[in-house]
Amino acid sequence: SAAEKGGFDWFMRKEIYEQPKAVADTLLGRHDTEGRLTLDEIRISEAELRRIDKIVIVACGTASYAGMVAKYAIEHWTRIPCEVELASEFRYRDPIVGPTTLVVAISQSGETADTLMAIRHAREQQARVLAVCNTNGSTIPRESDAVIYTRAGPEIGVASTKGFLTQVVACYLLGLYLAQVRGTKFGDEIATVMAELATMPDAISRVLEDMDPVLKLASDFVDEPSVLFLGRHVGYPVALEGALKLKELAYIHAEGFAAGELKHGPIALIEDGLPVFVVIPPRGRDLLHDKVLSNLQEIRARGARTIVLAEADDHEVLPYADVLVPLPRVSTLLQPLVATVPLQVFACELATQKGHDVDQPRNLAKSVTVE
Length: 371
Ligand code: AGP
Prior knowledge:
This protein is α/β, with parallel strands linked by helices. Helix content is 43%, strand content 15%. It has helices at residues 11-17, 19-27, 46-51, 61-78, 87-90, 113-124, 139-142, 162-182, 190-198, 200-209, 212-220, 235-250, 288-301, 335-353; strands at 54-59, 82-86, 101-107, 128-133, 146-149, 226-231, 253-258, 275-279, 305-311, 323-327. The longest helix has 21 residues, at 162-182. It is globular. 52% of the residues are buried. Bound molecules: 2-deoxy-2-amino glucitol-6-phosphate. The site of 2-deoxy-2-amino glucitol-6-phosphate has 16 residues, from helix 4. Its EC number is 2.6.1.16. This is Glutamine--fructose-6-phosphate aminotransferase [isomerizing]. Catalyzes the first step in hexosamine metabolism, converting fructose-6P into glucosamine-6P using glutamine as a nitrogen source.
């Protein structure tokens, strides 16, 4: 009913707007005032956590993209090698896992069969399994050694939104906790990252207040047959997520690419008028921003119609942006928490304009309980 949707037309739209709170709730009580992590729910001893020499994240769909984002942060903070694998691929290839492997299973529902089978396999190989899950008492956390609950509240829309953002946050808490326990060189910066994470609910709210350009854009896309998404580093999984949302909801061909991979093939797809969303990294000391800026210039020169997600005052992108979607200034690793939001809003709105059932897209189920 309309009341259940809190006055929104779809659960999905309601859930998009709940993201500031979902992120705040997921952070709540998990650190002290000095910015040290207190993840009591991780019932794996510190001695054991110090012995871990490999992390394998298993998940499906949007949850796997949260895992891809997390890999960048976890490896940077902990220096533990971290792989991300689609749960449906994991156990059928005889993966190398053992007692010193931490397998992290990310699942909003906690009932995804592919992910469940992956953790059963991991446990048979004596690996420690930690679930990142949104559903209390569901099967995946019950069959894991420990669980970090995302506190997004019930996610009803088939397309995952607040699930994704809170999965990224929970994985970041895990990464920071591991860095803390293991005393990595990064240790001093933990409090700095925690302080910035605490500002994210506000940053996400600011993005949501400024969605008019994105809503307007959706009405121009009703007859568009294909849309591309480009990103690099943590912006790459954001691009994949933007594309998945369009497939699921708008039923159009959409593909995400790593921006640096363009010249190895996908740039051949660029032709006059092809819409391409580009996620521009924040300006910083590394070269990431400039690299993606030059990719933007390349596709624009070949006729692409560009929708550019960049820091609000990033004047360098302006000459190459047909549409600019402004983002607040955040550090690179936290950018997915703001950059994903306009892509969710865009997909939700485009599907609405096309007359699709946003909450129940064709052929899909909220949780996929068969392999
Ligand atoms: C996301 O929009 C999808 N509907 C889907 O990819 C989903 O994220 C995937 O099936 C995993 O679900 P889970 O998080 O409940 O395990």
